[in-house]
Each structure stands twice: as C-alpha cells, then as structure tokens.
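User:
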Amino acid sequence: MSHAVQERPVTYSKPRGPLAHARLPRWTPAAVAAGSIAAGIGIGFAAGWHSKVQWGMLSALLFVLGTYAITTKVEGARQAKDRVATSLVWVCFVLAVIPLVSLAWVTISKGMEVLDVYFLTHSMNGVLDAEAGGGVYHALLGTLEQVGIATLIAAPIGLLTAVYLVEYGTGKLAKAVTFFVDVMTGIPSIVAGLFILSTWTLMLGFGPSGFAGAMALAILMMPVVVRSTEEMLKLVPNELREASLALGVPKWRTILKVVLPTAIGGITTGVMLAVARITGETAPVLLLVFGTKLINPNPFEGAQSSLPLYVYEQYAVGTDAAVARAWAAALVLIAFVMILNLVARGIARWKAPKTGR
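Assistant: Predicted structure:
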C-alpha cells in the first residue's frame, strides 16, 4: 500500500531589516562640489579675503566635510568614510593639476605674443637686449647640441650600469655602486658644474664650450637613467630569462634579445625623464658655456648659449621686449621637451615586443 506524500506549501518569511540601503544619486559629488565652491567664494568675500588660494582651500575643506555629512545622513558612517577617501583623492588631484594648467596657460598666452618663424630662425646678434626683435635660434641650437651630447654620454653608461646591478651585481661592488648612484641623484646642478669647472677648465686648461656643459649635464642625467632602468629591468619576469637560458642562449644574448626589448618602453621613458631633468638646467651652462648672442654650431670650441640661459638673461634685463622674449623661449623649451617625449614614446612602441598572434 503506497502512501502519498503530501507536499506542504513553502512559505518565506520577510527579512527583518531592509536588504538595500538608501543610495545617493550619481550627481551628488558634482552638486556638493558646486555648492562648496559657491560657499567658499561667498565666505571669502564676506571675510574680505582677496586670495583665490584661500577660496580654493576653503572650498576643498567644505567639499570634504559636506560629502561626509550628507553621506553619513543617507548611506551611513561606513560608506561615508569611503566617499571621504575618494573626495580627498579628487581634492589632491585638483590641487596638483591647477598649478600645472595655470603655468601652461600663462606660458602659452605670453609666449605666443613673440613666437613666430622669425623668432625661431634668428639670433640676438646685433640686437640690444632692451630693444624689440632678435630670436632664439642660437640658444635652441646650443640646447640641442648640449642635451644631445649629454644623452650620448649618460644613456649608455646608465643603461649598462643598471644591467650590471640587476643581472650581474652581487657583493660589495654592487652595494657601493647603488650607494653612489643614490648619492648622485641628489647632487645639486651647481656642484656638477663646479666639478667640471675644476677639472676640465682649471686643471686641464680647456676654455668654455658646449661640450663642457654637456659633461656636467651628463653627471646629472646618469643617476636618473640608472635608477629608472634598474626598476624597469626588475619588472621583467624571471620566467622569460629562464626560458631563454633553458634553450641554451647565452646570458648576454638573453639580456640583449629578451630582457631589454621587454623593458624598452620603461627604459625610454626613464631616459626622457632624465632629458627633461637636464634640459632646464642653467647653473652648469652659466659656469661652463658662458652664453653668447652669436650662432656657434661647434660645441667643442667657444661659448654657446642655451634656452634656459637665454630665458634667465632676457628676464634679468627687465624690459617689456626682453621679458616677452623670455616667455617665448620658455614656451619653446616646453615644446622641445614635449616633442622629445612624443618621439621617444613612438620609438618605444615601435621597438616593443608585439603582443597577440
């Protein structure tokens, strides 16, 4: 005799608490930011503050406090802490970007008043500093030659030093090299210039030249290349090295064909950071190159000029025409560094190992 099993209906009990908490709409951060800016400006006017920096700092403080208060009221204290952390990140980002954008805007707006083809193709030969006219060609040529020579000296030495530290360096010698690289990273530019002045000029008797300035710039450039290249080489997976060595490839060829191509993008970026570090240096050029208004295409003999030195000299004159030339030269200097970075990124992408099939 079979017994039929009677199914009982399944009942669900309602949860005691809500499963979904209240959420603020997506436009809340923008609304809080707008309200904080308006409140900061209003309080600044009422308090008689004339500095926009004070208005901005007060607005940032109100933005963080307002975000915390509104989020705590609606979403709870736990979510409020998360939103406050996000707000602090955004505030720090804005505080970092504002000076950069302001600097770029002022340089472009003031530099474009003088910058033209004539300015780029003429020197200051025969032009008084207080007069209008003249150009930056001699300084641009000097910067190209000095930075180029410094890169040819520092980049290979820094690259080989980094390869030694990562691939071969063990023991006291590697520790000593690492220590001196760290020390050289913080050397002021004037110290590098004085070192070359005391050895190349005073002891060996050579006169001012672009090559002397390039050697001082190379001293400043080498530690940056070493540290950046060293970090990029450490990021290369050891499995790639082991696979190459397992196939019987010599270590030097593994480094040349596997390790360096894998890290070429980061290495190129590090070299360009070092180039940007030395391009704006004035002290070594002032000590070793002296500066001139004439076009000197020979970096191994005679005084030369450079863009940073040209900016310093023109701004020191103080007249409207000279200050306008200084802003234009500063814009040329920024454009020079940007072009070098774009070229370097193109080379890195071209030489980087291809991914996919």
